[in-house]
Each structure stands twice: as structure tokens, then as C-alpha cells.
């Protein structure tokens, strides 16, 4: 099973530099997307999980889960970019909407599981 809460658990166990890889893998097998992930207080994890769940559900059904729009599901004071600083402009242009509106600047191609 790969619920949004499962992704929370995984991200809390790995280094921040590994987030994109684990999110990309989770997105290929995501399930129970209407079940809200617990809020952790780690604003990057909370925003990443909401962004990933929103993107997957939107691609499957045309609508994002309601919980992904709740308080604490987006960065409010900064942007988060997992790559090299020189890649920020590329990532900003190529970030999926569900990620960028939550303050996560990650290019769509970084979310492909290989």
C-alpha cells in the first residue's frame, strides 16, 4: 500500500537530498489519495506530500484531493528546491502546477521514476 501517510513516513526517515527520488517512486504506486496525510510540522515534507498527492490524483481524475489545499500543506515563507542552485530557473519553469503553488520548485522530469 502507498498512501499519502506512507509517503510521510518514508520522507521522515530519509535525508532531504533524497526526497525527490522517493516522491517520484511513490507517485508510481500511490493509492488512497483521498485519505489525508498527517501533518508533521516539517513544512517541506507536508508540502511535498500534498503536492505529490494532488498531482497524481489530478492526472487520474481531473481533481485534487480536498485535504491537499488545507492549512500547512504549502510553504508560506520560502521556496524549496532540491537541486543545484544553477538549476533553479529550469526547475521553476518546468515545475508541475501542484508543486509550484505549494512552494516546491522541482522540475517534472525529476519526478520520473526510472
Description:
The protein is an all-alpha fold and 114 residues long. Helix content is 43%, strand content 0%. α1 runs antiparallel to α3 (43-61) and α2 packs parallel to α3. The longest helix is centred in the middle third of the chain and has 19 residues, at 43-61. It is globular, with a radius of gyration of 13 Å. The mean pLDDT is 95.
> How far apart, in Å, are the first and last alpha carbons?
20 Å
The percent range for helix content is: 40-55%
* Mean residue pLDDT: 95
Assign an overall shape: globular
Number of helices: 5
Strand content: under 5%
Helix/strand class: mainly alpha
Q: What is the CA-based Rg, rounded?
A: 13 Å
**Sheet with most strands:** none
What are the segments in which pLDDT stays under 50 over at least 5 consecutive residues?
none
Strand segment count:
0
The total number of structural domains is: 1
Secondary-structure element order, N to C: HHHHH
Short description:
This protein is an all-alpha fold and 114 residues long.
Features:
114 residues; mainly alpha; globular; single chain; 43% helix
How is the topology of this model organized?
Blueprint: H1 4-13, H2 19-27, H3 43-61, H4 88-94, H5 97-100
Helix pairs in contact: 1-3, 2-3
Amino acid at each position: 500500500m502507498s498512501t499519502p501517510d506512507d509517503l510521510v513516513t518514508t520522507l521522515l526517515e530519509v535525508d532531504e537530498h533524497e526526497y525527490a527520488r522517493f516522491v517520484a517512486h511513490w507517485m508510481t504506486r500511490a493509492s488512497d489519495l483521498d485519505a489525508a496525510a498527517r501533518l508533521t510540522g516539517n513544512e517541506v515534507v507536508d508540502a511535498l506530500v500534498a503536492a505529490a498527492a494532488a498531482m497524481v490524483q489530478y492526472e487520474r481524475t481531473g481533481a485534487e484531493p480536498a485535504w491537499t489545499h488545507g492549512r500547512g500543506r504549502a510553504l508560506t515563507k520560502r521556496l524549496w528546491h532540491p537541486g543545484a542552485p544553477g538549476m533553479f530557473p529550469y526547475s521553476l519553469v518546468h515545475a508541475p502546477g501542484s508543486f509550484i503553488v505549494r512552494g516546491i520548485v522541482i522540475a517534472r522530469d525529476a519526478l520520473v521514476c526510472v
